[in-house]
């Protein structure tokens, strides 16, 4: 590890990684350790919150969907215990609404899986208010429409009738859209 990279990490290299995908968790922990971090792993919301409470780390990488709940609960616990921590939320179910929710409660960044260790480090060590590079593959118009519908649906507490009213579309049309998988 270069001296410059260690300076970027800072004097406290503690890192919490919370993910229920055991092979990914171990692989990411090894990669982060090789890059100068001191990782501690958890595979559930409960164990992640316990570590965040007992030993709040300077850095965290938290999966959004875990078997026993939502990773945002870990983010909230960590933010309450250590407001200066840098937190990246990872998920295989990327949606704009969840990215907004993650950032609102204190995540530094939000990455869609598959993300490698270099992506995670870039997000963790990015300067404050730095703009990310433009996407290599931007969303299609169909995907942007779907994301907007999902966001309004979440804001309406997953109420189909209210969402349809706000989007000015027929309820059955909205139900068909919601039943389909997200466009690429």
UniProtKB/TrEMBL annotation:
Residues carrying 4-aspartylphosphate: 63
Xref: InterPro entries: ActR_PrrA_rreg, Bact_response_regulator, CheY-like_superfamily, Sig_transdc_resp-reg_receiver
Signal peptide per UniProt: none
SUPFAM superfamilies: CheY-like (SSF52172)
GO MF entries: DNA binding
GO biological process: phosphorelay signal transduction system
One Pfam family here: Response_reg
Its job: Member of the two-component regulatory system RegB/RegA. Involved in transactivating anaerobic expression of the photosynthetic apparatus. It is a transcriptional regulator that is responsible for activating expression of the puf, puh, and puc operons in response to a decrease in oxygen tension.
UniProt KW DNA-binding keyword: yes
CDD domains in the cross-refs: REC_RegA-like
Domain of life: Bacteria
KW Transcription regulation (keyword) present: yes
Alphabetically ordered keywords of this record: Activator, DNA-binding, Phosphoprotein, Transcription, Transcription regulation, Two-component regulatory system
Entry-linked PANTHER family: PROTEIN PILG, STRESS RESPONSE REGULATOR PROTEIN 1
Protein name as annotated: Photosynthetic apparatus regulatory protein RegA
Domain Response regulatory: 14-128
């Amino acid at each position: 590890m270069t001296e410059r990279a260690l300076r970027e990490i800072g004097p406290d290299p503690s890192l919490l990684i919370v993910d229920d995908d055991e092979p990914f968790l171990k692989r990411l922990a090894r990669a982060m350790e090789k890059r100068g971090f001191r990782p501690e792993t958890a595979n559930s919301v409960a164990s992640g919150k316990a570590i965040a409470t007992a030993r709040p780390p300077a850095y965290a990488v938290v999966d959004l969907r875990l078997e026993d709940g939502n990773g945002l609960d870990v983010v909230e616990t960590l933010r309450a215990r250590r407001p200066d921590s840098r937190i990246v939320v990872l998920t295989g179910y990327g949606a704009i609404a969840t990215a907004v929710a993650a950032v609102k409660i204190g995540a530094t960044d939000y990455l869609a899986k598959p993300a490698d260790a270099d992506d995670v480090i870039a997000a963790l060590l990015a300067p404050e208010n730095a703009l990310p590079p433009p996407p290599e593959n931007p969303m299609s118009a169909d995907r942007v429409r779907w994301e907007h519908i999902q966001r309004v649906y979440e804001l309406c507490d997953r109420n189909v009738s209210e969402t349809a009213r706000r989007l000015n579309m027929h309820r059955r049309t909205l139900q068909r859209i919601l039943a389909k998988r997200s466009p690429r």
